[in-house]
Each structure stands twice: as structure tokens, then as C-alpha cells.
């Protein structure tokens, strides 16, 4: 995710294509980085890299190596060993590169377009699915207003706050449950000792 005025944010976790758009751990982890700038009317874009732990330089080197090893090999068949075959076909189609193109006939500009398409596929996000589909909420009472030893409010006496009512959220995968349980335990222990 690239938002104006912020460092790019990325996730190496799974992404699913669904009937309504994208889902899965990566989009859920990145949604906050997309939603905040969008609500502030700042430019924000999302791209996907289809090769885990590989960047454009790695893929460029792979293309050049494949061309040296077997110039007559089909680019689509070689890509299909690294990507799902339908995805490889869709990328070639989008870049207007014939499916029967061999490495010997793959031009430098075509190769660069393929590298960019595989490592920086644009993911046009139109909107969030909203609160009813949210897995985690962001925002809440600032941590500076909470005593971390008791979870007591520093602004409202005898009020203890726990879980997502406080401005704490983590990646999908149980972190938010753990925060709710841990902060609840701290508050309960403080109240039991009071």
C-alpha cells in the first residue's frame, strides 16, 4: 500500500480473490493503511507481488537465466511453473504478449512489462466492506489515557477499559483476542485487589 506522505506498507501473507474483491490475511492487515488515507482524501494505491519473497531484480535475473538456458522455451510454460497457469495466462494477455511467445522472441520492453505486472500488479480498491464485515476495529481511547498497570482510565475515575475499546489493534491471527484477554486479566486483577 502506497499512501501520499507515508512509507509504503507491505504484507507477505496470503491474499484471496473472491466474488466481492480481495480478502485474506494480507488485505486485512493492510486495510487500515489503505482506509485512513482514503478517508482523508489522500491518494492511495495497492499493488500485489505474485512471487513470494522475490522482487523485480530477482525476476529480471530469472527471465535472463531462462532465456540463456532455453531460448526456444515458451514464456507462459516457464511462468506457469512459478505462478498458477491461469494467472500467468492472464498476465500475458493483459500485457498483450502472445501465449506462444518464446524467450528468444521476448523483447526487453516486454520483459520489463511482465516483471512489473508480476511484482506490482495494480489492485484497484474501491471501498471497504464496512463495519459489518470488519474483523478488527481501529481507534478508540488513546493508550495515554489508560494506566497500563490497572487498565483504569486516567480521565474517568473507577472506569476500567479493555480490548478494542482502547486504540490497540494488531494483525489478523489472534493478536486482538490476546489483547482483549490480557487487558481484561490486568483489569480484573486490579479490581479484585481493590
UniProtKB/TrEMBL annotation:
InterPro entries the UniProt entry points to: BaiN-like, BaiN-like_dom_sf, FAD/NAD-bd_sf, RsdA/BaiN/AoA(So)_Rossmann
Pfam families: HI0933_like
Residue ranges annotated for the RsdA/BaiN/AoA(So)-like Rossmann fold-like domain, each copy included: 124-189
SUPFAM superfamilies in alphabetical order: FAD/NAD(P)-binding domain, HI0933 insert domain-like
PANTHER family per UniProt: OS12G0638800 PROTEIN
Protein name in UniProt: RsdA/BaiN/AoA(So)-like Rossmann fold-like domain-containing protein
Amino acid at each position: 500500500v502506497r499512501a501520499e506522505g507515508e512509507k509504503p506498507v507491505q504484507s507477505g501473507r496470503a491474499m484471496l480473490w473472491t466474488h466481492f474483491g480481495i480478502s485474506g490475511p494480507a488485505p486485512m492487515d493492510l486495510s487500515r493503511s489503505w482506509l485512513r488515507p482514503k478517508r482523508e482524501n489522500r491518494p492511495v494505491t495497492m499493488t500485489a507481488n505474485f512471487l513470494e519473497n522475490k522482487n523485480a531484480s530477482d525476476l529480471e535475473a530469472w527471465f535472463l537465466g531462462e532465456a540463456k538456458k532455453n531460448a526456444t522455451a515458451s514464456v507462459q510454460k516457464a511462468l506457469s511453473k512459478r505462478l498458477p497457469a491461469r494467472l500467468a495466462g492472464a498476465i500475458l494477455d493483459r500485457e498483450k504478449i502472445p501465449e506462444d511467445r518464446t524467450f528468444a522472441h521476448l523483447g526487453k520492453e516486454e520483459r520489463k512489462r511482465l516483471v512489473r505486472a508480476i511484482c506490482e500488479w495494480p489492485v484497484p480498491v474501491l471501498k471497504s466492506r464496512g463495519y459489518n464485515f470488519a474483523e478488527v476495529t481501529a481507534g478508540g481511547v488513546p493508550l495515554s489515557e489508560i494506566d497500563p498497570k490497572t487498565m483504569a482510565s486516567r480521565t474517568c475515575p473507577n472506569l476500567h477499559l479493555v480490548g478494542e475499546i482502547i486504540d490497540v489493534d494488531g494483525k489478523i491471527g489472534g493478536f486482538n483476542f490476546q489483547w482483549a484477554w490480557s487487558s481484561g486479566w490486568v483489569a480484573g486483577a486490579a479490581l479484585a485487589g481493590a
